[in-house]
Amino acid sequence: MDETRLEQLEQEVERLKARLDQLEQRSAAVPEPASSVTRPKVRPAFVKKGRSTAVQPKRTRDEWEQLLATVWLPRIGAIFAAIGAIFLFSYASLAGWISPAVRVGSGLVIGLLVMALGEFQYEKKRRELGIGLVATGTIVSLSALFAGMALYAFYPPLLAFFLELIVLAVAYGLMLWMRSSALLILVSITGFLLPFLQLSDEPDVFLFLVYEVVLFTVLFVAVVRLKAVKAYPFSAGMLFLALLFSCITVSVEVRPVLDEVSLVCAALIAYLGTAYVGRRLALSKNYPSWLAGLFVLISLYVVEWSFVYGLSLVFAVVAYVVANGTKDAWQNGVGHLALVFTIHQLPVAADSLSDQFRSILYALVLIGLWFVKRQQVPYQRWIGIAVYLLFILKTLADYEVDPWNGRSYAVMVFGLALATAGLVYLLVRTHQEHEWTKYWKIVLTCAAAGVFITYTLIVMELPFYANLDQTDRSTTLSVAYILLAFVLVAIGRIRTSAAWRLSGLLLLSVSALKLLLFDLSFLSLIQKAFVFIGFGIVAFIISRTYFKKRPS
Predict the structure, then answer these.
(1) Alpha-carbon span 367 to 384, nearest angstrom
(2) Fewer CB near the terminus (10 Å): N or C of the chain?
(3) Taking the C-alpha atoms of 315, 319, 320 and 323 in order, what is their torsion angle to the nearest 10 degrees?
(4) Global pTM?
């Protein structure tokens, strides 16, 4: 029967082959009719095809229900189950159901069993449920270890430290195996909160920071291996929370030198680690690394060592090296901030002549921001202008006008004059560049305010100014403003620059308002005559130059 069926199939195949050969011969004999449709022109190679934006389909109600039940519900359940287990242990301890040793041991065993159950669920293709169970087991196990040390004193903090690292190592291995960013976030939370509770009565900052450095080194390695870009900022935030806790502890209490050293070293390791992670993840803006650099400076400020300025200068060099290695130009900003912090931490007496030399160093940093090409930050000119405005405010806050204190602020004013001259020179050289085009008026306003304040302080630092009374001081300032306005207009005429001329005219208008609203009320007759006639002469001279230059 089978042989007969096989012979029939072979005959059918032969007939089909013959039929196919006949069809091919007929198609070859009939010529293909010419098409009346013209072929499209070949597009040139340089024409780029526009990318069509892919519209993601909206989730249906069933998909939202599935997402809530299979993804978020296990995560929420993990947190609530862990909290419930902690409450159960607390109630059991108060009711006296089980002995302390049984409580701690059973908690640890139950936590590890729940972690194993999570692994089993993950193997059964229940990914989110397995991750939630592993997170629950991790929290329960670490809570039991915390209770054994803090509540019952079964073992010292150092042993609790190593036992917690073992549990976290197991969680880390499962995290890499499951490739779960959610588990990474949960482990980050427990890594900070449990040592914080464990060491809250008498903080052991050294042990706490060693634990944090080891834990987050492992977590950052996991971030790189899992490419967990979204989990990275959260883990870094937990590390910064630990550093903040340590900074507060060191600042409000008298701590051993070991705690201070461990704080500075932990902050520096956090900075280098976040910079490395940002490079491996190819992040365009590595915010955690920049914030870690700020924590390094905060830790140096907290420890109050006499040689902090030297360490901050070394850290500035480290930041510049990191910027070159990671190709992250914003890391140069961390170095610039470290330089400013170095100047601020110089060991000089307040309100002394040496303290005024800080202004010259600040001015040199500002000039470097404007003119030094290496180690630049994006928008560095604008950052320099913002720092310049802060520098002006600081100088005004430090400046005292009391004529009887016998103190000169000439060095500080010289530093401000140096920075102002640098800004004016920058605008003269680069006023035609595209960077200033959109906000040129704002730049000129900042420069004009800086020149006006600097010029006023220079006049007030003249040798004879301190010996004048209030009326003569006002007269001196009015005359100085009129002369400066004349000089600015003259420079504008020589350089054929409208900015200089308009600045002079604006200053002349301010001088006129000062004469009418302020000087007119209390100057003597001879002073009024002298100042007002001088103003009129300068105004006529400036106007004469405009008449001379106008088209015939």
Answers:
(1) 8
(2) C
(3) 170
(4) 0.70
